Amino acid sequence: MRHRAARRGETQLPKVLPGKGLAQHDFFYAGEAKTQDMYIVRKGKVAWEFHDPTAKGEISDAVLLSNGNVLFAHQFGVTLIDREKKCCGT
């Protein structure tokens, strides 16, 4: 199986990834899907999450601001939410 994948030019992943996995780096993730889902991961654990299944429009771009608020663009506009997940403006 490995040799077939190599012949097709596919990358072989190591059995054990280097580093500490999700704990290696803190990060902010904003998914592009039918629902608006965002996560802040710190030390490998979800520290904050936002889900709005009723929202219209996929997330196009998002930024975690220095004050903890999230500004994100979607198909129908721009929205600002605070750390408590309350809408501060659209």
Strand content: 35-45%
Approximately how much helix is present in the residues?
Answer: under 10%
Q: Trace the largest sheet across and list its strands.
A: 4-5-6-7
Show unreliable segments.
Answer: none
Gyration radius (Cα, Å) is: 18 Å
Distance between the termini: 51 Å
Number of helices: 1
Descriptive keywords:
mainly beta, 4-stranded antiparallel beta sheet, 1 helix, extended, 3-stranded antiparallel beta sheet, 90 residues
Could you explain how this protein is built, in words?
With 90 residues, this protein is mainly beta. 7% of the residues lie in helices and 42% in strands. The strands form two sheets. A four-stranded antiparallel sheet has the order 4-5-6-7, with no helix packed on it. Strands 1-2-3 form a three-stranded antiparallel sheet, with no helix packed on it. A hairpin with a 5-residue loop joins strand 1 and strand 2. It is extended and about 50 Å long. It starts with a helix and ends with a strand.
